[in-house]
């Protein structure tokens, strides 16, 4: 299990290909790691010999999820993912999509959660997955895994707020208390 640059992963991908190993790639924010993430990554890893997780940087996470996110800094999120048994490699990317990562690594299989499905049979919604279009263009496979209902970071945040209440902490107060991800 390794946290590495994309350049290092390109070399590792070539070694995997030479050994005939099936490489699976997924990507996401993985903020507030929870059981749904672990189940998803375990299922993704079972589909191949190596699992690479491309992790959205703090900046790209904010662009996708809003100024309040991520709650956990990218270095910590990468460390947590790297500690999981199903994950072989973690790399951080700054773009809004993982197309550059897909183009560089050309995984055998690209996996995303069922929330990217266009139909109940888990057909990928290619309009929402530019990475999938790229994978299919070179003959790779795309698979969506069933979404764990009720197991999401947003649901977890909502539960925390419901149980503990909303503390009206200002940005300055949060910064002083070290509650904010560095911007």
Automatic annotation (TrEMBL):
Lineage: superkingdom: Bacteria
Keyword entries, A-Z: Nucleotidyltransferase, Transferase
Gene3D superfamilies named among the record's database cross-references: HUPs
Residue ranges occupied by any Cytidyltransferase-like domain in the UniProt entry: 25-120
Ribosomal protein recorded as keyword: no
Pfam families in the cross-refs: CTP_transf_like (PF01467)
The keyword Hydrolase is assigned to this record: no
InterPro entries listed in its UniProt record: Archaeal_FAD_synthase (IPR050385), Cyt_trans-like (IPR004821), Rossmann-like_a/b/a_fold (IPR014729)
A molecular function (GO) term: nucleotidyltransferase activity
NCBIfam families referenced in this protein's UniProt entry, alphabetically: cyt_tran_rel
Protein name, per record: ADP-heptose synthase
Originating species: Candidatus Chloroploca asiatica
């Amino acid at each position: 299990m390794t946290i590495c640059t994309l350049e290092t992963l390109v070399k590792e991908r070539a070694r995997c290909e030479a050994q005939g190993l099936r490489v699976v790639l997924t990507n996401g924010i993985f903020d507030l790691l929870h059981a749904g993430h672990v189940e998803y990554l375990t299922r993704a890893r079972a589909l191949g010999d190596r699992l690479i997780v491309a992790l959205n940087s703090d900046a790209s996470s904010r662009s996708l999820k809003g100024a309040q996110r991520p709650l956990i800094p990218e270095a910590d999120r990468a460390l947590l993912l790297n500690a999981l048994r199903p994950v072989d490699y973690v790399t951080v990317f700054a773009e809004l999509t993982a197309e550059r990562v897909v183009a560089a690594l050309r995984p055998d299989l690209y996996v995303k959660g069922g929330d990217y499905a266009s139909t109940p049979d888990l057909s990928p919604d290619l309009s929402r997955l530019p990475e999938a279009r790229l994978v299919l263009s070179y003959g790779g496979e795309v698979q969506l895994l069933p979404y764990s209902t009720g197991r999401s970071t947003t649901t977890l945040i909502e539960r925390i707020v419901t149980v503990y209440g909303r503390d009206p902490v200002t940005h300055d107060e949060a910064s002083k208390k070290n509650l904010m991800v560095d911007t």
